[in-house]
Amino acid sequence: MAKFFSMLSWPLVLSRLLAAFFLLGSAINIIAPGSTAADYQRWGYPAWFHFVTGAMELAACVLLIAAPARLFGAALGSAVMLGAITTLLVHGEYAHAGLPAGILALLMLVGWVALLAWATVPA
């Protein structure tokens, strides 16, 4: 058991937690229960746009899991969160922008660590 915990690092744990967040988000956006569909409609997005958001979140989830692709997962997840923040701010839903802003900050941290790891890989 001690060996298991010694293999864990905070970037690994954080990237897995973010992957879980995006997995849950993708399921909610792809299924689009009534409240989610109503949100997209209220924001003026086409009826099919929740599928695009869900697919992007699912792709970010998968990319965040694998270390070689983590930088791309962080970038894609950041793009999704920037879109969410922009949508919420444009529509005056300031109180709801905090969660995506926090997730964006964590993604930037994971992306930075992944970039540093990439830069130190010998050619």
Any key phrases for this structure?
single chain, 123 residues, mainly alpha, 0% strand, elongated
Oligomeric state of the chains in view: single chain
What structural category characterises the helix and strand content? mainly alpha
**Residue share in helix:** over 70%
Number of strands: 0
- Give start-end ranges of low-pLDDT stretches: none
Radius of gyration of CA atoms, rounded to a whole number: 16 Å
**Order of helix and strand elements from N to C terminus:** HHHHHH
Q: Major β-sheet, in short?
A: none
Question: With helices defined by DSSP (H or I, 4 residues minimum), what is the helix count?
Answer: 6
| Average predicted confidence as pLDDT | 93
Our estimate of the beta-strand percent is under 5%
What's the N-to-C terminus distance? 35 Å
Total individual domains:
1
How would you sum up the global shape?
elongated
